[in-house]
Write a structure and sequence with these properties.
alpha+beta; 3 domains; 48% helix; 18% strand
Length: 413
């Protein structure tokens, strides 16, 4: 689901304020999300997702009456009876633009967000379990933390909306080019930009703001690591440390307390990353965490991002382990924002995911768009700080971008 950043009329995928209130039910939202992946009956939904069958069946009927889903098939019930089981498919998705989203009560927005996030994470889990997540070498997975002013926040939202609006067009173009062949890639595209509970100052201290932003190139990320550095980072703990330092400064002892690991090994990983020029000591505190020695606080100097050529040099097992580190750290950022009450603090935050069938040309275009957004983030942050008089007025923003092969089979329709 998305809160679009256009404050005029509802976007082409928007819904009316009246219908928005009817849809702000966590089960209805989750049903719409699941039916966008594959057809389901109410009983199947209850088995796979949860809920009470009577209530879920009523939600299915309501969504059908409102024109969001329709009966695709009627079959003899699977639950040992002669009852007819109705299998539904999605025909319209519920996307909320900003004007509509603002009229939804905060509790309703939270319910919608939890359902949408839960469904998206289920798609990721399915792809990881089925080992399709890393099947395509050039799949995209990235998240970053940046402090933005209102102008940069709006510009970022516009970029995300453009990608979302382009996806249906790419699916149609792919279908025409494929001419009915089975070469299309079942793709999940996920886009997010939301407020973090982290303070803007702490985020800037941890970020690359103390460096000049890298040069911009269309569809390119020229701060990606080369093969040699990628192999040095192909370790779960080193990768996880770098990801956590992207979000805020940390000492080895605090990392062990919050994330885990052996203090001796984690301290060594911090030192190794510093030698590689990827992190640096930001502050030294006398007394340490437990009153002895000096506690060294580190910050990140480079984000862990791998281009396709570099990613291809790593063994499949290593790629999967590193993907797990990226996913775990990103999910923790989402959970922090949900529990901290900041995920829906901005009415124009963006969270959307969409399943689409893409051919190779469209798949590459999506990757280029996501790379371009990722490459723009440090520039948006620098521009924001230059314009902003008070650092605490900036929006501490987590941006999540993904495009990967779905575990789902292609639907007939």
């Amino acid at each position: 689901m998305t809160a679009s950043l256009k404050n005029t009329a509802p976007s082409p995928f928007g819904i009316s304020p009246k219908m928005a209130r009817a849809l702000t039910d966590s089960w209805r939202v989750r049903i719409l999300a699941e039916l966008s992946v594959h057809p389901m009956s109410p009983s199947q939904f209850v088995e796979e997702v949860g809920g009470e069958l009577t209530h879920i069946s009523r939600c299915f009927r309501q969504l059908a009456a409102w024109g969001y889903i329709e009966v695709q098939e009627e079959r003899v019930g699977r639950r040992g009876g002669a009852a007819i089981e109705h299998v539904y498919r999605g025909i319209q998705r519920a996307h909320f633009d900003t004007a509509t989203w603002e009229n939804v009560p905060r509790s309703g927005r939270h319910a919608v967000s939890r359902a949408a996030v839960g469904s998206y994470l289920a798609r990721i889990s399915e792809a990881v379990s089925a080992r399709t997540f890393d099947e395509e070498i050039d799949r995209h997975l990235s998240w970053d933390a940046v402090a933005l002013d209102r102008a940069a926040w709006l510009r970022l939202g516009e970029h995300l909306d453009e990608v979302l609006e382009r996806l249906p067009e790419l699916a149609v173009e792919s279908d025409k080019r494929s001419k009915g062949s089975k070469t299309l890639i079942p793709t999940i595209v996920g886009l997010a930009a939301f407020r973090s509970p982290q303070s803007p100052l702490s985020m800037l201290q941890a970020s690359r703001f103390h460096q000049s932003p890298p040069a911009l190139g269309k569809g390119e990320v020229d701060f990606a690591f080369g093969p040699a550095m990628a192999k040095a980072l192909s370790n779960n703990w080193r990768c996880r440390i770098l990801l956590e330092l992207t979000h805020r400064p940390l000492s080895p002892s605090r990392f062990v307390e919050e994330i885990g690991g052996s203090m001796t090994h984690i301290s060594r990983c911090f030192r190794e990353l510093a030698k590689l020029g990827l992190i640096e000591i930001f502050e030294e505190r006398k007394g340490g965490r437990r009153g002895g020695g000096v506690e060294r606080i580190y910050r990140c100097l480079r984000r862990p991002y791998f281009d396709t050529a570099t990613w291809e040099t790593l063994p499949r097992l290593v790629r999967e382990e590193m993907s797990q580190s990226f996913l775990t750290s990103y999910v923790e950022r989402v959970v922090e924002a949900m529990e901290g009450g900041t995920f829906d603090a901005e009415a124009d935050r963006h969270f959307s995911w969409k399943p689409v069938m893409l051919d190779g040309t469209a798949w590459e275009e999506v990757g280029e768009h996501l790379n371009e957004i990722l490459g723009r983030l440090p520039h948006l942050e620098h521009e924001s700080v230059e314009r902003c008089a008070e650092i605490e007025d900036l929006i501490p923003t987590v941006v999540g971008l993904a495009s990967f092969r779905s575990a789902s089979r292609r639907r007939e329709d």
